[in-house]
């Protein structure tokens, strides 16, 4: 009963454990689908697979493939035993380190469909996961092309050469016919295999065991043939002219003469009769004439010394003849007699150039396939044990097979035959097959079926990988490929896979397709290692893999090896792969759906942010690093939406400083009751920020008092050294019409709180007139009125605004005010030098403010301001008293009119003028009172004393109060008059100079100290007068420190 309330909302432990025990997110298998189709009500539980059947053997089948049978002998012949061993070892070590990293990731939780994509995306985030997932998909798809081309090569070259469709295809001279045969038969194979995959994966799985058995039997047959060669060489003979390997076709025999008198077919190929002068002479190829024909055993056996000749590299350029080190030749001129024509030479030449890097790129796809076990984690009896053991065991087994094969091929087969890629010198025989025991057909059939099986596995796995990516919906345009048949088979993804695989088949050259696969798989393996290293270094609480034999250094070395192999193999292919990955990454980041998978990259961001914040906290920022870190205070309406979203647009236009932006709002009420509203308001702020392209953070505070809430936000927003230094909030429009002083007290309290925290203040007035982010001002100026030095913020703001496209075409003008004692000419020169050092382009103008008499209009505005203030203080009176005050106000208003009428014929003394200066008479006509809610209807009667003006411009106050109060009132009135005079005169100058400006930026005077309501209302009135008649105004108050410097 103690936890009764919690049990209603939270599950019991038994319920939770039961749900987790039955959890699966794997797609339904073929067996269960068969049961559904047959209407069976009770489905049979699938038998879970062991380590051998579920991981080890599938990995072995995927790793051992076409390269072992059709290219490894060629690689050994060109690179030699030493370098070939190093190539294989380098590739195997890379996959071993990747297997260790993958085992750690795979045993840190369930890995459903998607395999490596799932692991990488959940470890590095959707952007990296999507990019690497697409690359892995492309690699797997092109691997199907490679396997199909390998199967066609084995079928056409070694099993049934009679099936050629384009005539002879052997030899470099017939290479075009060979590739065309590959394209036609490869397309046919692709259609048949895709149809089988479409019909049902269950048929592919049933044949998988047969294909695996063929691979195992073929390898055992090769080993048996190597052992047999120790007892005697094979009967295969090679024919050489000098040391150059010859191709014998038709009835050719390795002899120059038959029975020492009859010319052989080879002799007639290289020699002919021709007229030299008037005589007939025998004309032969120079090299043929200088060298004899010789024969060597093609497979001398393991007991021979052939390994000495095969130990080191024999790289060839395209067109170079294939030679052996076991024979010597006599040099001869490399010319072809014109009488013999062209194309008569039958010695074999290299069809492609070779080097260590090229052979490395061709071989690496043969060691891929280590993900086969992790992709089946849901079908394993104990995935946490089976995946590491099975995968690492398969890598070690296949590494032993490859390394031993390199040694055996180099010690059993002649080097020239190894370099004969297609076995043209021995009648188009597969070199591996002639080693095998008891028959070559064991290897030929086994190699053919194994390549077909590997191709089927690729065509089965690639669409499911694409389907997993599409279902995650991180790449919107791939969403269609997440669809499939009722049993979940990816129909649309299979079609796309077939199309991409067809591109590889059209290329038709196995040696060109293999490096493409190498890049894609190396990229994938690199990110697997990176994910493991990152998770290990971050040591997040959720990183608890059951596989313990890993270390971040091993993952880091594996990652570096993958990157190195990419650029060693082919730097331009590597760049293309990186560009594709970067493009997919940016696309997902920009257009993809937001996913939060708790990935390691986010953990890295948190760790980096923590480190950076601690570093920022250790020392204050330098002036050169100052930038506006904005705290934008927004008011929300009754629908919890921002009342003035233009504030966000203006904040976005100021973001050239690349600083922090925090958007905040305060809701009045109790937090416990208003929590849902606060969350909804925060979401509305987020939407508004996204609509205005403002990148930053949003927060909503619930407080009983709005002023206290704003003060709390200003004090506590930010974290450590990453705090705001500039506060922006709007002008309280309509404050005159509202008799409640709270309407503008919140505004003043925000100014005081910001100043107390030494924050700069930005107050945009008439914010609804400001341009939006989609506007572009074609011309105009940004006018800065520099009255008081504020640390340089007034200079910096126009520069930041002009970095945005909205204000880019505007020019900057700076106005500064000179007093009587200032030298305006020198001020302009000094200011020009100052701006030059600040690297700011602006027009400069110095305004000389004449100390003129106080106008009647000034006094009228002052008097009406004071009347309004005192009237509003009496609005709490009773209705009867209010009515009486209204009648009394009429009398006061008549007196005010009389005073104003008299003031038009009387001059006013400036408080600082001398007696001689008062002789200069000046007449100023009064200005029209502002229309912003300040008409006579808004004034209510007040019991304030009457004000009179004597002929000397002195204010008198007819009242019955004591003399001390009278003196204080006179001082206050005199101060108000001076301030109003300054505001009016400055406004006249600003309107005169900047009436056509796109934006006017000026200093914001400090608010009055204390909480005197009359002084606060007067302050607001002064600001209204100062900015009257201006369309867009930005009032700025510095934070008390320099924000701009002339130093670099």
Automatic annotation (TrEMBL):
Family matches, as InterPro entries: AA-permease/SLC12A_dom, KCL_cotranspt, SLC12_C, SLC12A_fam
Keywords from the named record: Cell membrane, Chloride, Glycoprotein, Ion transport, Membrane, Phosphoprotein, Potassium, Potassium transport, Symport, Transmembrane, Transmembrane helix, Transport
Entry annotated with the keyword Transmembrane: yes
Pfam family, one: SLC12
Alphabetical GO biological process terms: cell volume homeostasis; chemical synaptic transmission; chloride ion homeostasis; potassium ion homeostasis; potassium ion import across plasma membrane
NCBIfam families: 2a30
Residue numbers spanned by region Disordered: 910-975
Locations listed in the record: Cell membrane
Domain of life: Eukaryota
Protein name, UniProt field: Solute carrier family 12 member 6
Amino acid permease/ SLC12A domain span: 55-278, 354-631
Sections of the chain in a coiled coil: none
Keyword Zinc: no
Classification lineage: Eukaryota, Metazoa, Chordata, Tunicata, Ascidiacea
